[in-house]
Design goal:
The complex is a heterodimer of chains A (259) and B (381). Chain A is an alpha+beta fold. Chain A has 8 helices and 10 strands. In chain A, a hairpin with a 4-residue loop joins strand 6 and strand 7. With 381 residues, chain B is an all-alpha fold. Helices cover 66% and strands 2% of the residues of chain B. The longest helix of chain B is centred in the first third of the chain and has 29 residues. The chains are: A alpha+beta (259), B mainly alpha (381). The complex binds iron/sulfur cluster (SF4) (2 copies). The site of one iron/sulfur cluster (SF4) has 14 residues of chain A, from loops. Chain B: It is a multi-pass membrane protein.
Chain lengths: 259, 381
């Protein structure tokens, strides 16, 4: 079976329980909120990313190189590695959990149909992009993405997000994050090509792969290997970073606030 | 497993208080229009006083609402993209067509209704007389059928606006608190509460002080509050058993965030006070002089509901732990924007009031000329 189709069916099976929680899907969707046709890009390809968490050391090299490559404003990220300290309640043992986040280039992206002017669209090769000349900055797509993968870039005043570095892919280069990954944890490629590294890895690890928030029925195309189920949705964690306060209760250490 | 989040970005809010202002004003507008239907469109004598006030409310808020919507865009000068590149799958794109149709129909309705009394001032001097000669576009009497036709068209477009504003938010599965069909119902009902409050406040501060209009609006507020209670009960009942979805997310937020707790208590308390106040006034006529306080409270309920839903929900983190911090900006993206849009609305009302004799529309009497018009209700200053 075609790999893309298999992935879709696999995810569909995992989300059937979640489907009960999307009653509006059936009501509001008489054409409205359906996926508009894809445009541009190579219809032969379907780009996807596999992140091998076993190799991620949380060094944030991808975060930094993406920032330099794509010039996101300070404090806004197209990709970042979320880090949590995890303690086992049984043994008391400590571990760190790293979770690189980026746009999932979903196959059913909720950010696309909402765009009132079609500035956000999905290319035939699956990459979800924003036409910043057309975007009116309504931020509807920012609200619609369940993964916080989008933001309004204060410099351009338009929606901004990861593009899988489409401009680099077109030039035959790897995305900045993949290029700079110290552990080789990020693998990008065409899942329609059975010989690509990502296709081979998906085949090999098919049953262990996880996606984020499968219950949202978005069919993400960033796959995680070595992922703990408990982090697939919003983890039940204590916010550590922003809770550093001085003796007057003022928050400390947030230096890249609005400037 | 216990875990502490060490690194996560802070996600700011993407819709600013302008969005609250828009949702507030547009709901006031369409609900005011509905309150004007019996008196203005169907010509029911009993509802004409309320109709005059409600029409003023509907027109003035319809003029200001689109401005607040534009202000919430990060690229307001590109608004023409809505019409150059419409995307039919987007509720917001549909709204960009409903909204101007609605605003246009309401303004034309106001013009049709107000041009009759305006013509009577054609001999007046100064700007008022000049406008009274220019604006009615001729001396013809406004035909009834034109008011009915444009009025019904406005009602149809208002339904479009009501549906799109609700659906636009409720389809967003990314935010479980919004993703419920009970949300559009609550937007609608709190809109009615606010519109009735607006009529009460206009009734008092325009000096019209029409007792029947005031009582009718109290009834609207009471009935709407009961409906709101039923909707909330239905929402809780269908969601309490699920460990996902909007009720679960709401309970989680109220449990884990003191700000949310305060907000929840406040909303419930204000709703109950409004209900008791309106109920008491219906029973004891003597309290009616203070109706305008309830009117303000009703407006507060409608506004606060939108603030809670649109702003506070954005502080619920989707992927990181805890809550996103949101401090309201003192500038145009925050307090200045809120105050500014209310100021703009007030200016529009004052300008209409100055140049349009709306009180004498629909066969109303001008209480400035006939002081006895305020009789029937004690003058409570
Ligand atoms: S992750 Fe978000 S921005 Fe990316 S395609 Fe999916 S919904 Fe759209
Ligand atoms: S912010 Fe831009 S890309 Fe996003 S929905 Fe609005 S117009 Fe479309």
């Amino acid at each position: 079976m075609d790999l893309a189709r298999r992935l879709f069916l696999g995810q569909a099976a995992r989300i059937t329980a979640g489907a009960a929680f999307v009653p509006l899907a059936s009501v509001a969707e008489a054409g409205i909120n359906d996926q508009p046709p894809r445009r541009g890009g190579d219809p032969e390809k379907r780009y996807a990313m596999l992140i091998d968490l076993r190799r991620c050391i949380g060094c944030q090299a991808c975060t930094v190189s993406c920032h330099i490559e794509n010039q996101a404003p300070l404090g806004k990220f197209r990709t970042i590695v979320s880090q949590s300290e995890v303690q086992s309640t049984e043994t008391g043992g400590l571990a760190q959990f790293m979770l690189p986040r980026l746009c999932n280039h979903c196959d059913n992206p909720p950010c696309v149909p909402v765009c009132p002017v079609g500035a956000t669209f999905q290319r035939e090769d699956g990459i979800v992009v924003v036409d910043s000349d057309r975007c009116v900055g309504c931020a509807y797509c920012v609200q619609a993405c369940p993964y916080d993968a989008r933001f309004i870039n204060e410099r351009t005043q338009t929606a901004d997000k990861c593009t899988f570095c489409a401009h680099r892919l077109e030039a035959g280069l790897l995305p900045a994050c993949v290029e700079s990954c110290v552990g080789g944890a990020r693998i990008i490629g065409d899942i329609h090509d059975p010989k690509s590294q990502i296709s081979r890895m998906i085949d090999e690890h098919y049953d262990e792969l996880k996606v984020l928030k499968p219950e949202k029925n978005t069919s993400p195309h960033v796959f995680y290997l070595g992922m703990d189920e408990r982090f697939a949705t919003r983890p039940a964690a204590v916010p550590g970073l922003w809770d550093v306060r001085d003796h007057e209760g003022q928050e400390l250490g947030y230096e890249y606030a609005e400037h | 497993m216990q875990s502490i989040e060490l690194i996560a970005p802070r996600y700011g809010i993407a819709w600013y208080p302008w969005a609250v202002q828009y949702f507030f004003l547009i709901a006031l507008s369409y609900a005011s229009l509905w309150l004007a239907v019996p008196g203005v469109i169907f010509g029911r004598e009993n509802w004409k006083a309320a109709g005059r006030l409600a029409l003023l409310g509907a027109v003035s808020t319809a003029i200001v609402a689109p401005i607040t919507l534009l202000a919430d865009l990060h690229q307001p000068m590109r608004f023409w993209h809505f019409y150059a590149y419409p995307n039919p799958t987007s509720w917001m794109a549909l709204g960009s067509f409903f909204l101007p149709l609605y605003v246009g129909a309401v303004v034309v309705l106001g013009w049709l209704v107000w041009r009759n009394p305006m013509r009577a001032h054609a001999n007046a001097g100064g700007v008022q007389g000049w406008l009274a000669r220019i604006v009615p576009l001729g001396q013809w009497e406004t035909p009834r059928w034109a008011v009915v036709l444009v009025g019904l068209a406005a009602v149809v477009f208002s339904l479009g606006v009501m549906i799109y504003t609700g659906a636009e938010v409720a389809i967003l599965k990314a935010r479980p608190l919004w993703h419920t069909e009970y949300l559009p119902a609550m937007f609608l009902i709190t809109g009615l509460i606010g519109a009735a409050g607006l009529v009460v406040v206009l009734n008092r501060f325009s000096g019209l002080r029409h007792p029947r209009a005031g009582d009718q609006m109290l009834t609207v507020i009471l009935v709407s509050l009961v409906l709101a209670g039923l909707v909330v009960a239905g929402w809780l009942a269908q969601g309490l058993t699920m460990n996902e979805g909007s009720v679960a997310a709401a309970i989680d937020s109220v449990r884990n965030n003191p700000d949310w707790r305060g907000l929840a208590y406040w909303n419930v308390v204000v709703g109950v006070v409004l209900f008791l106040g309106a109920g008491l006034m219906e029973i004891f006529g003597s309290l009616r002089g203070t109706r305008w306080i309830l009117g303000l409270l009703a407006l507060h309920v409608a506004w606060m509901f939108r603030w809670t839903v649109l702003m506070e929900v954005q502080t619920v983190a989707r992927n990181s732990a805890g809550f996103q911090h949101y401090a309201i900006d003192p500038g145009s993206q925050g307090i200045l924007g809120i105050v500014g849009s209310f100021g703009l609305w007030l200016a529009v009302v004052l300008i209409i009031n100055m140049f349009v004799p709306w009180r004498t529309a629909l066969g109303g009497r001008d209480e400035a000329e006939i002081p006895s018009a305020v009789q029937g209700e004690p003058n409570y200053g």
